[in-house]
Design brief:
The complex is a heterodimer of chains A (about 80) and B (about 750). Chain A has one domain: Roll (SH3 type barrels). Chain A has one helix and six strands. Chain A has a six-stranded antiparallel beta sheet with strand order 1-6-2-3-4-5. The radius of gyration of chain A is 11 Å and the shape is globular. Chain B has about 750 residues and is α/β, with parallel strands linked by helices. Among the domains of chain B are: about 160 residues, 3-Layer(aba) Sandwich (Rossmann fold), CATH 3.40.50.300; about 60 residues, no CATH class; about 50 residues. In chain B, about 60% of the residues lie in helices and about 10% in strands. Chain B contains 32 helices and twelve strands. Chain B has a seven-stranded mixed beta sheet with strand order 2-3-4-1-5-6-8, sandwiched between helices. In chain B, strand 5, helix 3 and strand 6 form a beta-alpha-beta unit. The radius of gyration of chain B is 31 Å and the shape is elongated. The chains are: A mainly beta (about 80), B alpha/beta (about 750). Chains A and B meet through helix 1, strand 3 and strand 5 of A and helix 3, helix 12, helix 13, helix 17 and strand 12 of B.
């Protein structure tokens, strides 16, 4: 399965986080917030910034050159 | 409830309350402490320090409410304070004897990340498991007993908003032990642990004391400068060079920092939670999700946002106006009572003009400030503020900032001081500075009186299409001038002095809930009181200084002899009650008050303030101002709200009448240039004054707060310079353009 950037998910689509890319400090911040490989995310409001649902919480997040999230979309959704 | 006999041997325990944002921490804090709360600031920084106390059994417990945080890795001043308090290094705060960690039961994994860091401190720890109901609604069940056994610390299920489980929690807190304990903590890979040991012993060899292991570990993990620049004794000895080498070795050993921290901690969390948490049908659409689909929608959401903001400002004016009128009347009444009790002279003048008028002119804004703080507190508590920040992020991103800058800027419409204090949630130092530097450009409530005076006096009321009034438009324009300038200045700053990447924007959107009135009212009260205290003390000092500058030297010899002679003559005629007809008496009284005003005006002209104003006239003439406006503007530099009172004094009104609107309006309309006799005021001057006040940095408190926030005078001086120059040129341009247009 191909990895795609998080913001390419459509509203309501779910995916599994595969990889965080970017400056180590920023990546660390995402992990502290619970955004980490293996977690399942659901796109609530696509765009930049986007709103995602993750482990029961909603986070808004803007991807940038310094920080991105690659996800594995769930088939069938 | 078990109340201890009030014997002498009450044992006071200091406990730190910590937790992720949006876990119900403030709710728990006020549920535990009730009204026994104190807010203040940590010395040297404007991070809010909140403590409270309660009694349980024979213990008196002092609770320190730490700012909400996801991690103990300090990345903002707020988080640095948290670390300092927990390590007992914060001045004026007792080292906590134990820690209360509040966690969100519906998101235990992420919450236990912070718990694992807290456990490493080695302090006795109690976990409060909040929002069990939310977790249950999401199909999550938690075996709290098993969790407690695994963590080997008390885990107390609570429901803070319903005040459930609080007694159990208090009992657990009160029975906590003293001293350091060995907790079950995450195991880091062996090479990492070894590197920590090496660094610790090296530091001990250099500085002569063994630093806490926790600190060395943090230092190795955190690549930001907060910790290494904190000047902690234990880490002075750890050389940047050693750190760099250790990090490089770890990277080659396959456990690069900071990544190794998240891996180790989440592994530990996974082990701890195995079998403790069970989930059924995970993906459930909640009410919050449905609301969010609408309120964060690109168009509907934005429309709702604009409507909310418009409603909020409407409410501020709606409630503030009658309340202001009442306070104003109370102020005049007090002034006349005090004025009537004292004889003419410096003391009366000081009390009436200096103290009552000066401080009163600030207290008059309290209603609108409270209303605005109330609205902001409601929006924060119900969860909408985070959505507003999300919506504004698109705009902020174009400026070079992010959505988190929005809330401080919004607060600045009430007052720049809480606005600047609210910037502490912004992690990036440059963004924080930019937000702080433009916050004073937002039209704060202290600008309202001068706008209101000038608009009511000089802008004719015209209405188009029944809705759009000219006065309303000028009001709007006054606010827009400041906001638009702020956008331009922020963009320029981000492209020049404070250049840097736009940092990533990640923010949690809490679930919507009904605002808790207790929390809202407390927050409004605390912030409002903070404003009164901060502004009140400074304004009192400024008012007295301005009064003195406008009163002294007060030499009688400055007044022309014939005026004084005539004054004495009329006074004598009036005192001699016999032989005067009613009409003569009225004419004399009239002339006497006219003379009084002339004499007052002459005293002012000859006062230090008047001399300064006349000296400034060549500089302010291009803006259309005469020396008297110059005086009023100079006097309002420490606190801009003084200007209306000063204008009243300056335009020969005498002190007691300065707040009687109609009279001041008339006086301004009738004011003439001393040399040519042409009217001073007109639409061009009114516009130039409005633009000047919209842009100028006339607030000593703001600059002082900025100094405390940034740690140097550099940024306040910069702000003062840029804003004042902008104000001067803005006023110049608007005057010249308005004249050219023939208004």
């Amino acid at each position: 399965m191909m990895l795609v950037p998080l913001h390419m998910l459509n509203s309501g689509e779910s995916a599994e986080i595969a990889q965080l890319v970017g400056v180590p400090d920023h990546v660390q911040r995402l992990k502290e917030l619970g955004i980490r490989a293996g977690e399942r995310v659901e796109m609530v409001q696509p765009g930049s910034p986007c709103i995602i649902r993750l482990a029961g919480t909603r986070l808004c997040f803007r991807e940038s050159d310094a920080l991105g999230v690659l996800v594995k979309p769930e088939s069938g959704s | 409830m078990v109340q201890a006999a009030r014997s002498g041997s009450i044992d006071t325990v200091t406990i730190a309350l910590i937790g992720n944002p949006n876990t119900g921490k403030s709710t728990l804090f006020s549920a535990l402490c009730g009204v026994h709360q104190h807010t203040g600031n940590y010395p040297g920084v404007t991070v809010e320090r909140k403590t409270g106390d309660f009694r349980w059994g024979d213990r008196s417990i002092e609770l320190i409410d730490l700012p909400g945080t996801y991690s103990l890795a300090p990345r903002s001043p707020d988080e640095m304070i948290t670390v300092d308090v927990l390590l007992g290094r914060q001045k004026g705060t007792a080292p906590p004897r134990s820690v209360l960690c509040i966690v969100d039961a519906s998101n235990l994994e992420r919450n236990l990340y912070l718990v694992s860091q807290v456990l490493e401190l080695g302090l006795p720890t109690v976990v409060a498991l909040n929002m069990m109901d939310v977790a249950a609604a999401r199909g999550i069940t938690i075996d709290a007993g098993e969790l407690a056994r695994r963590l080997r610390i008390p885990v107390v299920p609570i429901q803070a908003n319903r005040r459930r489980g609080l007694d159990d929690l208090k009992t657990a807190l009160a029975s906590g032990t003293r001293g350091l304990v060995e907790h079950s903590v995450p195991a880091f890979p062996a090479p990492f642990e070894q590197a920590v040991t090496e660094l610790a012993s090296r530091s001990a060899a250099i500085s002569g004391q063994e630093p806490p292991r926790f600190l060395v570990q943090r230092l190795l993990l955190d690549t930001t400068v907060y910790l290494s620049e904190s000047g902690m004794p234990g880490i002075n000895g750890v050389l940047a060079n050693d750190l760099q080498q250790a990090r490089e070795r770890l990277a080659t050993a396959g456990c690069a920092v900071p990544g190794v921290e998240a891996i180790s901690r989440y592994n530990w969390v996974g082990e701890v939670l195995k079998g403790v948490v069970s989930r059924s049908n995970e993906s459930r659409v909640t009410a919050s999700d449905r609301i969010d689909r609408l309120l964060t929608h690109r168009y509907y959401g934005t429309a709702f946002f604009v409507a909310t903001m418009a409603l909020m400002f409407q409410l501020v004016y709606l409630i503030a106006e009658p309340a202001n009128g009442l306070l104003d009347a109370a102020k005049s009444w007090l002034a006349s009572v005090v004025g009537g009790m004292l004889a003419e002279g410096p003391l009366r003048s000081l009390l009436v003009t200096g103290v009552i008028e000066g401080v009163g002119s600030v207290l008059v804004f309290l209603p609108q400030i409270f209303v605005l703080f109330f609205c902001i507190a409601v929006l924060e508590d119900c969860g909408y503020m985070a959505r507003a920040a999300y919506l504004m992020d698109r705009l902020m991103f174009r400026i070079g900032l992010n959505g988190k800058s929005f809330i401080p800027l919004l607060s600045s419409f009430a007052c720049a001081i809480p606005g600047i204090m609210a910037t502490r949630v912004i992690e990036n130092r440059r963004d924080r500075l930019v937000t702080m530097l433009v916050a004073p450009l937002m039209s704060c409530s202290a600008r309202m009186p001068i706008y209101s005076l000038l608009i009511a006096t000089f802008i004719p009321e015209r209405v188009w299409l029944r809705v759009f009034g000219l006065r309303g438009l000028v009001w709007f324009a006054a606010y827009a001038v400041g906001s638009c300038t702020a956008i331009v200045v922020a963009m320029l700053l981000k492209r020049t002095l404070l250049r840097g990447d736009t940092p990533p924007f990640v923010m949690e959107l809490p679930s919507y809930k009904y605002p808790e009135w207790r929390v809202v009212l407390l927050r409004m009260g605390q912030r409002g009181w903070e404003f009164v205290r901060r502004a009140g003390t400074l304004i009192l000092a400024v008012s007295i200084l301005v009064w003195a500058a406008a009163y002294y030297p007060h030499r009688e010899s400055d007044i022309p002899g014939e005026w004084r002679a005539r004054h004495a003559q009329i006074q004598a005629a009036l005192d001699d009650a016999s032989g005067l007809s009613e009409t003569d008496r009225a004419a004399f009284s009239e002339e006497l008050s006219h003379l009084d005003r002339q004499i007052q005006g002459e005293y002012l002209r000859r006062s230090w303030l008047g001399m300064a104003g006349r000296g400034l006239e060549p500089f302010v003439k291009p803006l259309g101002w005469d020396w008297r406006i110059g005086c009023a503007v100079v006097a309002s530099f420490p606190a801009r709200e003084v200007v209306v009172a000063t204008l009243g004094v300056i335009y020969n009104l005498g002190t007691e009448t300065s707040d009687q609107d109609e009279q001041l309006h008339a006086a301004l309309r009738n004011a003439t240039w001393e040399d040519s006799g042409k009217p001073v005021f007109g639409i061009p001057v009114a516009l130039s004054l409005i633009v000047f006040f919209a842009l100028c940095a006339q607030c000593g408190s703001t600059l002082v707060v900025m100094r405390r926030e940034t740690g140097s005078w550099r940024w306040p001086i910069f702000t003062f310079t840029y804003m004042t120059s902008l104000a001067y040129f803005g006023a110049f341009l608007s005057y010249q353009i308005a004249c050219w247009c023939g208004w």
